[in-house]
């Protein structure tokens, strides 16, 4: 049976970007993960080890986010999705990353890559 899970608004602080302030001072990021997976419900037996533990998904997101500083959100997003698909054999994975404190202009509320 196919399932879809969402991890909404994972809040992390990092040094991703191309501007000097982004790299030196860092900023907050909001990350949303949506993934689909298939499991045999006959083997599920209400046991966490028979499904995908969303805490382990969160741990992978956090490790990838913190292991390297990325210039582009697209690269970071693709790396997170790739690692999650590989580790958990996901059918699909969608990563949305938002910079809520964008430095470009006060007229822009946030930038988001989806």
Which terms summarize this structure?
alpha+beta; 114 residues; four-stranded antiparallel β-sheet; 32% strand; 4 strands; elongated
- In order across it, which strands form the biggest sheet? 1-2-3-4
Topology as a string of helices (H) and strands (E): EHEHHHEE
Measured on Cα atoms, how large is the radius of gyration?
Answer: 16 Å
Poorly predicted sequence stretches spanning 5 or more consecutive residues: none
Number of helices: 4
Overview of the molecule:
By secondary structure, this protein is α+β, with helices and mostly antiparallel strands. It has helices at residues 20-25, 41-44, 54-67, 73-88, and strands at 2-14, 27-38, 92-99, 111-113. A four-stranded antiparallel β-sheet has the order 1-2-3-4.
Question: What's this model, at a glance?
Answer:
The protein has 114 residues and is α+β, with helices and mostly antiparallel strands. The chain has helices at 20-25, 41-44, 54-67, 73-88, and strands spanning 2-14, 27-38, 92-99, 111-113.
Secondary-structure map with pairings?
Layout: E1 2-14, H1 20-25, E2 27-38, H2 41-44, H3 54-67, H4 73-88, E3 92-99, E4 111-113
Antiparallel strand pairs: 1-2, 2-3, 3-4
Helix pairs in contact: 3-4
């Amino acid at each position: 049976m196919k399932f879809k899970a969402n991890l909404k608004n994972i809040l992390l602080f990092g040094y991703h970007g191309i501007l000097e302030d982004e790299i030196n001072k860092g900023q907050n990021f909001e990350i949303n993960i949506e993934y689909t997976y298939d499991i045999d419900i006959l083997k599920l037996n209400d046991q966490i080890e028979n499904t995908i533990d969303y805490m382990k998904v969160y741990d992978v997101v956090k490790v990838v986010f913190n292991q390297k500083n990325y210039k582009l959100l697209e690269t970071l997003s693709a790396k997170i999705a790739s690692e999650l698909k590989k580790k958990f054999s996901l059918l699909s994975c969608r990563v949305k990353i938002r910079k809520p404190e964008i430095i470009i202009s006060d007229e822009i509320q946030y930038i988001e890559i989806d």
